[in-house]
Amino acid sequence: MAMDKQDDLPEATQREAELQRKIDDLQGQVTGLHRTREETNPELSLEFQTLKEKLNEQSKQLEQSAEKLSQLESENLTL
């Protein structure tokens, strides 16, 4: 039985080395995904900011239009 344990040791060591390589590969992939996310997020943040500014501008225009409509309605009643 002592021989069996010695024979298993190299196989276990090989398996451990294989698993460690897989772990290293996965860690590399995770690091790559994090980099991609960091590179992508600024673009999304910029697009979000642009859309937010457009929405604010359109909201202001809508307010101005509502005020103008209210003024015109008042003038119409006066006439």
Summary of the model, kept short:
With 79 residues, the protein is mostly helical.
Textual characterization of the structure:
This protein is an all-alpha fold and 79 residues long. The chain has one domain. The protein has 1 helix and no strands. The protein has one helix at 2-78. The termini are far apart. The mean pLDDT is 84.
Mean pLDDT comes to 84
Distance between the termini: 111 Å
Query: Could you say which structural class the secondary elements and strand pairing correspond to?
Result: mainly alpha
N-to-C series of helices and strands: H
Q: Name the shape in a single word.
A: rod-shaped
- Our count of domains comes out at 1
Count of alpha/pi helices: 1
Biased composition (Basic and acidic residues): 1-25
Region (Disordered): 1-44
Secondary-structure topology with pairs:
Layout: H1 2-78
Biased composition (Basic and acidic residues): 1-25
Region (Disordered): 1-44
Task: Looking at this protein, list some descriptive labels.
single chain; about 80 residues; mainly alpha; 1 helix; rod-shaped
